[in-house]
Amino acid sequence: MPKDRVSSISGSRRLEEMADFWDSHSLADYDDQTYKVEMVFDPSARRTTVTIEPELMADLSQVARKRRVSTQTPVNVWLRQQVDRFMSQTSEAESPVC
Fold first, then answer.
1. Are 79 and 93 in contact (CB under 8 A)?
2. pLDDT digit string, tens, across residues 1-32
3. Rounded to whole angstroms, how far apart are CA atoms 73 and 75?
């Protein structure tokens, strides 16, 4: 939530304040202040969590900051390169010799 934006129901500016508000209030009491939204859900767009050693994560974060991208960008690029290289080596080794 942008820092200058105030929640229309709780009047909160911070996520923690909103969480505290909803811990002690029911959405049913505010039904008239809600609205319907359209949402697309794609279950095939699932993500997987991979554990990374802290020292390696620090290095990845530093690379990402220097490139001004999210940490996942260089990780995904490098993983794609390595998987593609592995797959091409594997397929060459398995292809029949003519």
1. no
2. 556 678 888 888 888 888 999 999 999 999 99
3. 5
The model's pTM is 0.46
Terminal-residue alpha carbon distance, the chain: 61
The residues spanned by each domain of the chain are 1-43, 54-94
Least Cα distance to 74 among 48, 49, 56 occurs for 56
- Judge contact between 60 and 52, C-beta under 8 A: yes
For every residue of 15-42, DSSP letters joined together read HHHHHHHHHSS-GGGGGGG---------
For CA atoms 66, 67, 68, 71, the dihedral sign is: negative
For the segment 27-61, what is each residue's pLDDT rounded down to a tens digit? 999 999 888 999 888 888 878 889 999 999 999 99
Q: Which two tokens stand for residue 21?
A: 């508000």
Handedness of CA 48, 54, 59, 62 (dihedral sign): positive
